Amino acid sequence: MSRYWSEITKHIKPYVPGEQPGGREYLKLNTNENPYPPSPKVLDAIKQAANESLRRYPDPLCSELRAAIADYYGLGREQVFVGNGSDEVLAFAFPAFFNPGDRIFSPDVTYTFYKVYAALFRVDYIPIPLDEDFSIPVEMFFRENRGIIIPNPNAPTGKYMPIESVRSILEHNRDSVVIIDEAYVDFGGESAAGLIRDYPNLLVVQTLSKSRSLAGLRVGFALGQEGLIKGLDRIKNSINSYTLDRLALAGAREAIRDKAYFEETTSKVINTRERVSARLAGMGFKVIPSKTNFVFISHALCNACDLFRQLKGKGILVRYFNEPRIDNYLRVSIGSDDEMDRFLRVLEEIVASL
Ligand code: PMP
């Protein structure tokens, strides 16, 4: 605490990201990174871009990257916004669409950053309890609100909501902005991007961190009708005109263009996830059906916090959330087949010893 802090700084509870340990070599299954490297074309493009032109500012409109994303989704260029990770895009969305004091709805078990943005921008954040099996209670989102933010698939549960439910939420909330955070949609879900044509209140947010193996490059984007995108541009241009650097713009453009590599690596992750889910179920774990690159698991006889500590002691990092409803669950990112075999071996030993 410093006497120079503003009231906001004093009272905000910042988001705590998953550990990025230095020193000891861990098998890292705690932040949903992709086990496969980025496309070789991405690395080439970044090397090419690392030249004397770095003395100049990057393109503030991010035109080439926006065009690549627009082409990928069959949208217009004016329907795409890009930012420094989807966290930044989500952060901009709050002041772009919500006033201080506005009521917004989000699931009670979800990505905890939303609550932080709400506090930062003084938005009234109302958690909507998920059903017992962690599904989204769609009708609960039909009440009076100014905004809705839901990840689909949800995090950290991994559970996917059918696109018809997204449509139904949009249909009942014509006067609110509905943000669908699709950070994990490429691992088996269907994007709501196809609904943009029908709903001027829909903002779809995605990231290159997971399915395109670029967590380290920091690139995310939003898709929506021009009105929403212009709103995001106004906020961005009131904070920082150059959120993406020249290297990120070049790498991200190639990542979107290299569809074959993307399809190959995402399907490998999906296959591993299905195999690991079946093995975990065989070991007595409850496994929430996942459409993401992680699994959310719980064991009736083994306490999740103990499992977390024991795995860590054996060099394997997973994510444990000490929060209501989910404090007996672990979130485990899907690594390569070899990594997951090691995880399963160690977990089997621990479970047998308990
Ligand atoms: N949304 C969800 C649901 C996430 O889990 C994450 C990753 N922590 C993000 C957004 C942000 O991802 P990034 O900023 O790396 O694009």
Give a nutshell description of this structure:
The protein has 354 residues and is an alpha/beta fold. It has eleven helices and 13 strands. β3 (103-107), α5 and β4 (124-128) form a beta-alpha-beta unit.
Task: For the structure shown, list the relevant keywords.
354 residues; alpha/beta; seven-stranded mixed sheet; four-stranded antiparallel sheet; 11 helices; 37% helix; globular; binds 4'-deoxy-4'-aminopyridoxal-5'-phosphate
What this model shows, in words?
Helix content is 37%, strand content 15%. The protein has 354 residues and is an alpha/beta fold. It has a 7-stranded mixed β-sheet, sandwiched between helices. It is globular. The termini are far apart. The structure holds 4'-deoxy-4'-aminopyridoxal-5'-phosphate. 4'-deoxy-4'-aminopyridoxal-5'-phosphate binds next to helix 4.
Write the layout of secondary structure elements.
Blueprint: H1 7-11, E1 27-28, H2 40-49, H3 63-73, E2 80-83, H4 85-97, E3 103-107, H5 113-120, E4 124-128, E5 147-151, H6 163-171, E6 177-181, E7 202-207, E8 220-224, H7 226-236, H8 246-257, H9 259-282, E9 285-287, E10 294-299, H10 304-313, E11 316-317, E12 319-320, E13 330-333, H11 337-353
Parallel strand pairs: 1-11, 3-4, 3-5, 5-6, 6-7
Antiparallel strand pairs: 2-8, 7-8, 9-10, 10-13, 12-13
The structure holds 4'-deoxy-4'-aminopyridoxal-5'-phosphate (PMP).
Low-confidence stretches: none
Please tally the β strands and state the result: 13
Output the number of helix runs: 11
Which class best fits the helix and strand makeup?
alpha/beta
The proportion of residues in beta strands is: 15-25%
Strands of the widest sheet, in order across it, are: 2-8-7-6-5-3-4
